[in-house]
Amino acid sequence: MKSTNQKPRPRVLVTGGTGKLGKVCVADLQAHGYDVFVVDTVAADKSVPHMVADLADFGQTLDALSSVGQEIYAGVAAQAFDAVVHLAAIPTPRMVPDAHIFQNNIMSTYNVFEAARRLGIRNVIWASSETTLGEPFDEAAPYAPVDEDYPLRAKSAYALAKVLMEDMARQFCYQTPDMKLIGLRFSNVMEPADYAKFPAYNDDPKERMWNMWAYIDARDGAQAIRKAVEWPATGMHAFIIANADTVMSKSSTDLMAEVFPTVEVRKKLGRHETLLSIEKARRELGYEPEYSWRDAKTSATTKPASRARKA
Question: Which has the closest alpha carbon to 274: 223, 230, 208?
Answer without folding.
Answer: 208
